[in-house]
Design goal:
With about 200 residues, the protein is of the alpha/beta class. The chain has nine helices and eight strands. Helices cover about 40% and strands about 25% of the residues. A four-stranded antiparallel beta sheet has the order 2-1-4-5, with helices on one face. Strands 3-8-7-6 form a four-stranded parallel beta sheet. The longest helix is centred in the C-terminal third of the chain and has 18 residues.
């Protein structure tokens, strides 16, 4: 599914990733763990071509991603980050529907997908679909961020310390939900954290 072959990334004199080779099988939940500055997020950003490696090859589903258009690659991937990045003037439904709308999904399919994802993430669809991000708690906003990343049924979900800013109770609940989502969908997930307990969970 994902393969790094001798990948190196430098920022000036600093080598963030040095000759990395790894593979992630289809349907696997792989965690990258390490302290701040160890290159975890850089690895994730190279997977979806937010940044390019200085050496080596990255393959996704057997294809060298350097030969793919970034937007084509990113349509196969959901991406969840710590800061969430919801559009503040869009409703929850419109935030979740952003990529399906870009892909031209029929309106009924989009609405059904929003309902499905809100239910999967333990948010009442009728209550929250018309709400705005500022009306939600931090944990609810992060759930919407996960729903948005899953909306277009991506093959791969990249998660960059998505729960690190949340309180321990909310964080634990979302960790459990991600395990359940992985079991239910079989999506390939690459999850970055600096927390050993989160990694083990």
């Amino acid at each position: 599914m994902i393969a790094f072959e001798g990948v190196t990334k430098r920022f000036g004199a600093w080598t963030a990733v040095d000759d990395l080779s790894l593979s992630v099988a289809a349907g696997e939940f792989r965690v990258l763990i390490g302290p701040s500055g160890s290159g975890k997020s850089t690895v994730l950003r190279m997977m979806n071509r937010l940044i390019a490696p200085d050496a080596g090859t990255i393959r996704v589903e057997g294809e060298d991603i350097a030969r793919l258009k970034p937007e084509t690659l990113r349509r196969r991937m959901g991406y969840v980050i710590q800061s969430i990045g919801l559009f503040p003037h869009w409703t929850v439904e419109r935030n979740i529907a952003a990529v399906p709308d870009l892909l031209g999904w029929p309106r009924a399919r989009v609405r059904d997908r929003v309902t499905e994802l809100l239910t999967l993430l333990n948010l009442d669809a009728e209550r929250y679909r018309g709400a705005f991000p500022h009306e939600l708690s931090g944990g609810q906003q992060q759930r919407v961020g996960v729903a948005r990343a899953l909306a277009a049924e991506p093959h791969i979900l990249l998660m960059d310390e998505p729960f690190s800013a949340l309180d321990p109770i909310t964080r634990g609940a979302l960790q459990a939900e991600m395990a359940a989502i992985h079991k239910a969908t079989g999506t390939t997930i690459v999850f970055v954290t600096h927390d050993i307990d989160e990694a083990l969970t």
